[in-house]
Amino acid sequence: MNKELVKKFVEKYEDIKALFEKHQELEKQVEELNRKLYLNSEEEKELKALKKEKLQIKEQIYELIKKYEGIEVE
User: Fold this and answer.
1) pLDDT in tens, 1-30
2) Label partner for 24 (CA 20 to 30 A): which of 16, 57, 58, 67?
3) Is the pTM of this model over 0.85?
4) Closest Cα to residue 14, out of 71, 61, 69?
5) Rounded Cα distance, 56 and 74, in Å
C-alpha cells in the first residue's frame, strides 16, 4: 500500500480514514503472528483470514480514492 498517498486522502475523507485505521490494526495483528516461530492450525487460518481482509480493505481504499479523485492507485 502506498501509505504516503493514502495518508493525504485520510485527512480529506472520513471513510478512507476509517478503512486505513482498520488496515493498520490488521497489519499489527499480522506482524504479531509472523513473529511467532510456529503457528498452530488455528493461527495459520487466522493469519490467512487477516491477510485476506487486509487486501480487501486496501482495494476498498483505492476504489474510494479513484471515486473521489479519479486517481488510479497501484
Assistant:
1) 778 888 889 999 999 999 999 999 999 999
2) 67
3) yes
4) 61
5) 14
pLDDT band at 51 (very low <50, low <70, confident <90, very high): very high
Cell triple for 28? 499489527
Contacts of 2 (CB under 8 A, 6+ apart): 73, 74
Q: How far apart are CA 59 and CA 73, in angstroms?
A: 10
**Buried b / exposed e across 26-38, counting CB within 10 Å, b at 16+?**
beeebeeeeeeee
Report yes or no: 66 and 72 within 8 Å, Cβ to Cβ.
Answer: yes
Domain boundaries, the chain: 3-67
Query: Band of the pLDDT at 43, cuts 50, 70, 90?
Result: very high
